[in-house]
């Protein structure tokens, strides 16, 4: 592993090796409100642990079950690697806080190469970043009961006005959100950072005016390419909402318009 | 659990309880060619094991790492349940053949209720099933090197001619396939059957004339509702293809047009 840069994200995902895994200190600053840590942040910690024990450089697929909310503070990561192949390695990583297991993850690591895509998913038409608005700077516009989370101070989140009516008192009909994301301290995106970005927006149900916490039950994140420096465009789209369950799809494009990550999660609908 | 009906699918996924899990007999008839068992079939066996030990009735989310091809014949399922909640239960299931672990899965079980969707994904326009054609009955049309797999004799697969040019010597530009599916012996679909359906079509790369095996690396399947009896419409869509990797999205609608299951997988592109 190269030397880890000294940024908020790298500090918050730093690991100390132990027998069978790592210890870490979960940073309370990566919350989504109410002291609950962001699922993408937790998954990035897991991804770093898997890469550390792999002969390959990048997390390419992570499938996580969120067993319960992990508490900020000390945590352990138990890593059980599978056999390493020439192309990829599988591992199971369990993140536990003092209360027990919190996130259980199937991780696949591999090495992504800088080659052109054969078939690609182009980015949607989005408002240029300079015409978007920051969640953190518009805290006074937040809907009643909605806190501006610590996450939005770590990950600069500029909402596309076309899908941000909910933040201005005018929810829309479709559960879709778009935003430009970058680390607030200028850290450039990389595959580990992308993992965090694939669960970094508010629940898509907020776009339709249904506020409240939407706990993730399972989240699958795929990292498809090493991102170019600069802003990432993120689109989250709710699919079927039924019987208390909703699925959300994230797609992330880098500053060159290349699809670099995607995720799907099953979550509980806000009540 | 209710009495298991005597159908090909239920026999092929039957389990015998043991300490810590189950044994099963993987049926060589559910292959995708070359003696390789279908990933959806294996995932259905895993789903049945998770439901057996859960207080809840249905598999709602499964995220699987395919470690290596599982051999037909005797296999074991080690089930490690998490704490059971009122709404859902998580578990980890590892399916092993005599050679070792083959599939490692995060499973969430819950009970799906018969309620209307709040936001739904309508089915695509598809050719009526009576105007579609059967993979199994058109074996003579299979492209060179393409075997008609056992799977297509267990799961009746009627390809929509609009996306089946590849089977008639005229591959298309888009990696998309649609087909109507039902169990060949008349067994009606249910949540376990849907799990198998979310990985039941040929690789979407075949639609563009790129034949060959596309091994699944990770697969996430979500079951969203108990399906109505009758044919299911399945659409598989390839996304980003790059650097030897491809993602595929499946959506499954029941005979009433309701979205009942979906999946996403990361696979290796055929060479």
Automatic annotation (TrEMBL), chains A, B:
Domain Acyl-CoA thioesterase-like C-terminal: 142-267
Domain of life per record: Bacteria
Chain ranges of the Acyl-CoA thioesterase-like N-terminal HotDog domain: 27-109
TM annotation in the entry: none
InterPro entries: ACOT8-like_C, Acyl-CoA_hotdog, HotDog_dom_sf, Sec_Metab_Biosynth-Assoc, TesB_ACOT8-like_N
Annotated PANTHER family: CHROMOSOME 23, WHOLE GENOME SHOTGUN SEQUENCE, THIOESTERASE DOMAIN-CONTAINING PROTEIN
Protein name: Acyl-CoA thioesterase
Organism: Klenkia marina
